[in-house]
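Technical annex, item 7. During the second reporting period the consortium partners agreed on a shared format for inverse folding records so that results from different sites could be compared directly. Each record opens with the tokenized structure and is followed by the designed sequence. A conforming record, contributed by the partner at site C, is shown below for reference.
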């Protein structure tokens, strides 16, 4: 059996109860100061992820339209069917990208599904992706041009400070270029 004995002139020491309590109090103060920043970080990170996901999907659809030399459509997907749903709140539904072979703007049996991304906030309680012009689809023609310009706002629900600080506007021009601007910025 191994027995620990201190060296001569050296004694074993541990933490006293007062040292431990002071350490816990300092840690508690630091956590109280850091938690509001942590919430801001989490909200900003989620909104940034939503913006990047939508911009990536838009760029993907445009590049597929050019590569395939066919019309490609992006729209919110109906939860029951594969068709596009008429909603301006895109974050509450899955978003689908498909090749629109017959040009009707709806996904039919013959259309080729390219990609689907999940809803960012299905309940619509935390974050929102809103299409400004109301319900509709984004259609890219064979040369990558958008049928019409589009504007989306991405923001946190229920907190005006977070909406202004972290919210973003996504602008899609007629030539199909995507630009991300500050919250509620008007797309020119």
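Designed sequence (site C submission):
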């Amino acid at each position: 059996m191994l027995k620990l004995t201190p060296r001569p002139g050296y004694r074993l020491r541990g933490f006293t109860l007062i040292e431990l309590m002071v350490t816990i109090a300092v840690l508690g103060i630091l956590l109280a100061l850091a938690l509001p920043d942590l919430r801001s970080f989490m909200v900003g990170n989620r909104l940034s992820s939503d913006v990047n996901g939508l911009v990536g999907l838009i760029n993907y659809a445009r590049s597929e339209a050019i590569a395939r030399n066919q019309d490609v459509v992006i729209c919110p997907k109906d939860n029951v069917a594969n068709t596009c749903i008429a909603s301006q709140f895109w974050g509450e539904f899955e978003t689908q990208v498909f090749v629109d072979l017959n040009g009707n703007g709806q996904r039919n049996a013959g259309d080729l599904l390219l990609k689907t991304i999940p809803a960012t906030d299905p309940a619509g309680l935390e974050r929102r992706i809103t299409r400004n012009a109301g319900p509709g689809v984004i259609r890219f023609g064979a040369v990558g041009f958008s049928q019409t310009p589009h504007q989306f706002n991405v923001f946190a629900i229920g907190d005006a400070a977070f909406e202004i600080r972290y919210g973003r506007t996504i602008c899609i021009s007629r030539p199909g270029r995507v630009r991300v601007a500050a919250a509620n910025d008007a797309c020119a």
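The chain has two helices and eight strands. The mean pLDDT is 86. All partners now use this format for quarterly exchanges.
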